[in-house]
Design brief:
alpha+beta; 629 residues; five-stranded antiparallel sheet; 28% strand
Length: 629
């Protein structure tokens, strides 16, 4: 009733008046303000003149043992969420015993009332054997505990134990719980003797307390080696306050978290082995420090985001230098990054970010910083799942200098190629021009011999024309391709009929193997013809007299495969690596432009070309073209 009325904000004086009507000595304890308000009955019982005094002055009305027990009960009432409790106390002169009741009010104050018991103590040297405390928990259930004071006997041994329930099964169950408690538990009396220690305490400390039962704590753990423990145990015992600290057990090399609870009998100690936890914590700290060193000293930006990029969990410190946007702004508002991305690249970036939550992906785009500087950024990201949560991890790279270097490199390569090809063109055209000029001069000086050199001059002109045509083919744009439906068998048959005479003149056996060539493909016939002609002519030129050239062709579901093999001398690995370079050739009178033209046409038709060769074993060239480019 006191608790209910006080929760309705009844004045504290009214509560004391209600108790006074029944003649009950009572007071209100305000532990936050450390003040006590007493009714007249309480003043008369304790012989106190003031009705309002400090908590320290009020508690002096009880003897030292009662003060300690009252402090302990108040501590439990406040920290364990108890509703009410009761305790038996003795006054300062050990002349009167009281049954006291404490009720924890909703506003943090405690209502304290008691009534004297009939038993009177006349011997001040009498030591009370037991002190009973009834505690009512949050559910309203009452639990009784008995604390037995240490009693000296002839062997001067002392014991301290919690009284156990009368039910044997419940007593056994409580014993099992304490013995199997996952942390070390020990009870130490006021003489620093260990009166109880569970199995885990022995495991953590490495001490067999069965053989150390009659020894003092500091005989087992010297103070000079465990001074930190001694200080905190002494503090808990003298100040009657709970103490927590960390220590190191040298015998087992364990780091322990120690909690010391004061009691009337001494202290109760809990030891939790936190060695592995400390190791893991230190390893995590070291890992974080190494990662911080990496993140703080690398130009690239690491980031972790949710799959929808609505929140960033982490952004490395280089972000602000790269984008000109503070990390705080980016973490609080991920959309702030959109303001610096080039408007023409923004949609591309958003599409790429949506792909990163499903697969590895990268995108290159332009940004413009607040300072007006334009940069090229490459962003790479991929999905990662951790503990059932999906994240996207990625990295931003500033590729501005890389792109500029690539452009310079491309220009340098272009100039080098132009220079090389110009020299090659001049060289290739100069040879037939020199021959033409020489024979024309001979013809001019000897008109009767002019007709004899006519055929040679025409051959050299044709050679010049072929060189020019090759260069025209190389410069022909891909956009000029005119696609149409073509039967692959017709193209192959046309090329074989065209080159059969040339093969026969050289006594070379030319044959073909066809598979599914009745299918049609979408391509440009002229360019496909040119590819086959170049490949077969090169193969015929490569073999000696009596050699063999085989053309394999197959139309599958999605592509046309052409393969031309010869049993010529083959190519070394170094020669194979140079195929396709301007004017590289193994022919005596070749220019190397035919291979370049072939590769250019294959690329224009969205195909691939590959070479396989070994010295002394011939060469195989394979071209694959899509049926529907």
């Amino acid at each position: 009733m006191i608790r209910e009325r006080y929760s309705d904000q009844v004045h504290s004086g009214e509560i004391l008046d209600v108790l006074s009507m029944n003649g009950t000595p009572a007071c209100l304890l305000d532990l936050r303000m450390q003040r006590v308000t007493l009714n007249q009955e309480m003043q008369g019982t304790l012989h106190i003149e003031e009705d309002d005094l400090s908590f320290a002055a009020w508690i002096q009305a009880f003897n030292s043992t009662a003060q300690s027990g009252l402090q302990q009960v108040l501590h439990r009432l406040l920290t364990e969420g108890l509703r009410e409790t009761s305790v038996q106390l003795t006054d300062q002169n050990n002349s009167r015993k009281y049954h006291c009741k404490l009720v924890h009010l909703t506003n943090g104050q405690i209502a304290f009332s008691f009534k004297p018991l009939e038993e009177t103590f006349t011997n001040p040297n009498y030591t009370k054997r037991s002190s009973y405390t009834n505690i009512i928990d949050k559910t309203g259930q009452t639990h009784s505990y008995s604390f037995r004071r240490p009693i000296p006997d002839e062997s001067k041994q002392r014991s301290a134990q919690l009284s156990t329930p009368q039910d044997p099964q419940l007593r056994q169950r409580m014993s099992d719980i304490i013995d199997k408690f996952p942390h070390g538990l020990a009870i130490i009396n006021q003489e620093w003797e260990i009166t109880y220690a569970n199995a885990m305490m022995e495991k953590v400390t490495g001490i067999d307390f069965e053989y150390a039962r009659n020894e003092r704590l500091w005989d087992i753990f010297p103070i000079d080696e465990y001074y930190n423990f001694f200080q905190n145990y002494l503090r808990a015992m003298e100040n009657k306050e709970t103490v927590e600290f960390e220590g190191f057990i040298k015998e087992t090399r364990c780091v322990v978290h120690v909690t010391v609870y004061p009691t009337d009998l001494g202290v109760t100690v809990f030891l939790q082995d936190v060695t592995q936890y400390k190791k893991h914590l230190q390893a995590l700290k070291d890992s974080e420090e190494r990662f911080a060193i990496l993140a703080n000293n690398i130009k690239d930006v690491f980031w972790i985001a949710d799959p929808h990029f609505e929140e960033f969990q982490y952004i490395s410190p280089s972000f602000q230098n790269m984008f000109g946007v503070s990390r705080r702004d980016a973490l609080s508002n991920p959309d702030s990054l959109d303001q610096v991305i080039h408007e023409e690249d923004l949609e591309k970036v958003k599409v790429s970010l949506s792909l990163m939550k499903k697969q590895r992906h990268q995108v290159e785009y332009r940004i413009k910083t607040v300072q007006g500087e334009q940069k090229w950024i490459r962003t790479r990201g991929f999905p990662v799942e951790n503990a059932g949560t999906l994240y996207v991890l990625g990295i931003h790279e500033d590729i501005t200098e890389c792109r500029e270097m690539n452009k310079l490199k491309e220009k340098s390569q272009q100039l080098s190629t132009i220079t090389q090809m110009s020299a090659g063109i001049a060289h290739e055209i100069k040879n037939p021009l020199t021959a033409i000029k020489g024979f024309l001069q001979i013809g001019a000086a000897n008109p009767e011999l002019r007709d004899n050199y006519q055929e040679i001059i025409l051959d050299e002109v044709n050679r010049i024309e072929a060189i020019v045509q090759d260069f025209m083919m190389l410069s022909k744009p891909k956009s000029s391709i005119q696609m149409e439906e073509v039967e692959a068998d017709e193209v192959l048959s046309y090329v074989l009929r065209l080159l059969e005479p040339e093969a026969q003149d050289k006594n070379v056996f030319l044959r073909s193997e066809k598979m599914h060539l009745e299918e049609t493909i979408l391509t440009e016939p002229k360019r496909l013809n040119q590819i086959l002609i170049n490949l077969v002519k090169n193969a015929i030129d490569a073999v000696d007299v009596g050699g063999e050239v085989v053309v394999n062709s197959e139309v599958l579901r999605n592509e046309l495969t052409l393969s031309v093999s010869d049993n010529g001398p083959g190519l070394s690995a170094q020669e194979l690596a140079k195929i396709g370079e301007p004017f590289f050739t193994t022919k005596e009178k070749g220019t190397g432009l035919g291979v370049m033209v072939t590769k250019k046409i294959v690329a224009d038709l969205n195909g691939t070309i590959s070479y396989k060769s070994k010295k002394g074993e011939g060469t195989t060239v394979t071209v694959k073209l899509p049926r529907q480019p």
